Please model this.
Amino acid sequence: MRIYLDNAATSWPKPEPVYAAVDRYQREIGATAGRGAYRDAVEAQRVVDDARRRCASLFAVSDPSRIVFGSNGTDMLNLALHGLLRESDHVITTVCEHNSVLRPLAELSRTRGVTITHVRCDSHGYVDPQDIKHARTSKTRLIAVTHASNVTGAIQPIREIVSTADGALTLIDAAQSAGHVPLDLNEVPADLVATSGHKGLLGPLGTGLLYIRPGVEKLLKPVRQGGTGVNSTEDHQPDELPQRYEAGNLNAPALAGLGAAAAFLLERPVSANAAHESALVRRLIHGLQSISAVRIYGPPPGEPRASVVSFSVEGYDPQEFAAALDAAAGLQCRAGLHCAPRMHDALGTTKLGGLVRMSVGWSTTAEEIDHALDAIAAIAGA
Ligand SMILES: Cc1ncc(COP(=O)(O)O)c(C=O)c1O
Model:
């Protein structure tokens, strides 16, 4: 038996059309996208264009060229941060961030003298937009905030946070919200939104995307240079989007899968997926509350959260507990610090070795949650 509750790392299984699209690309199309003019090269381009158009629709973006593809969420966050920040800029971020934001910022602080304020969160993992406002200085160039924490699942008041920007640029890390929580970029006018394609967006590993608001490309330098299939006589990257940021061949087979996944999510749609996952998260939390050795972290029960539930088990190291669940019940989840060290410091869970995290997905069932709860209770002692 396998109960996969690690969808926050990457979603599994993928919807059937995702496998079919990757397979078709690999077996029948095979060509690179955006290069040749022969039939299969044109088909390759069409598949990638479809993926881009559907991903744009998921975020209510009318111009698909504003969506740039890359290899994962980390790649896209690196493009946003390294491409944007200059000598001595000030950045406001939060203690809730993943290392894919924290580490590029730390590197930019070493190499470009970028200064960073890590705004606190409350005991449930929520950031107060007022704290972001108060952290502003005359040098604040960017506010970089995760939409949903991969540890607590807390969904930040992203619209309010973006509206405090007052001239600063805004970057949302949507790695844990995309596909789980609807995000309409007409309502939330962020400048940049980075996400993985392989988590809630249900595409294959090796996919990520960055949304770039019109005008921001003038401020965002490409961090890689190379062939784009256009303007080949020039020795600099073209200005056109998305080619400006997509030097080298794309992972087109995986993007074919991402396109199929986006079509699935547009049809399902994300709001229905959110309702399905919320019901499972409520069931999991309800069951965990009756196990006395378990302490749940994150938003209070009943409050919205991304599809993530983290908890400690008295008397257990999180890694040991996760290994015991795997051995006893084939229950696969993630334990430790989840690449979010400041989040665990804020929760006071670093000294515990982090937490055990379970994350549900589109295909998780109520029965799987009940099996998981039985296994947790059996090991933790109910
Ligand atoms: C909040 C958050 N941001 C960024 C990332 C990085 O995404 P990727 O694994 O696609 O590089 C993750 C991955 O776990 C994440 O949870």
